[in-house]
Amino acid sequence: MNGRKFTRTNCSYGASIRYGGRVSMCKTDNLSIHGMYLKTKYDIPLDTNVNVTVYYSIQSPINISARVVRKEANGVGLEINNLNVKSFVQLRDIIAEKSITGKVLQETHEMLRCL
């Protein structure tokens, strides 16, 4: 995970991934504000657009649109391409909780400059 532009933190949450009319349950392995790795046994092709729900909180799951950028036998690497403000804040909070807060705040400002 070296050389990444955004802080990636290891964490395991229940999640679901929707693609091609299918919904599969999976687990997060790691998260960043720009991407994630999901552990799944399903073969999801590279460049497939997916919708992911991370069940961080039952009352307020995190909803993410992403694209498969890496495939391995035990999961897929995703690049986030869209999420609402509420989901962004929740995702940032998860990462900040497990990381160096100042660095995550800096990354948040970098993301906001892109909007």
- CATH homologous superfamily assignment: predicted glycosyltransferase like domains
Main sheet strand line-up: 2-3-4-7-6-5
Order of helix and strand elements from N to C terminus: EEEEEEEHH
In this structure, how is the largest beta sheet organized?
6 strands, antiparallel, barrel
Instruction: Name the shape in a single word.
Output: globular
Any low-confidence stretches, pLDDT <50, length ≥5? none
Intertermini distance:
26 Å
* CATH-derived topology: Thrombin, subunit H
Number of helices: 2
Proportion of residues in helical segments? 10-25%
Strand segment count: 7
Give a description of the structure.
The chain is α+β, with helices and mostly antiparallel strands and 115 residues long. Helices cover 23% and strands 43% of the residues. It has two helices and seven strands. The protein has helices at residues 85-97, 101-113, and strands at residues 9-10, 14-19, 22-31, 35-39, 49-54, 62-72, 75-83. Strand 3 (22-31) and strand 4 (35-39) form a beta hairpin. Helix 1 (85-97) runs antiparallel to helix 2. It is globular, with a radius of gyration of 13 Å.
Question: Summary?
Answer:
By secondary structure, the chain is α+β, with helices and mostly antiparallel strands.
What structural keywords apply?
about 120 residues, alpha+beta, Thrombin, subunit H, 6-stranded antiparallel beta barrel, about 25% helix, globular
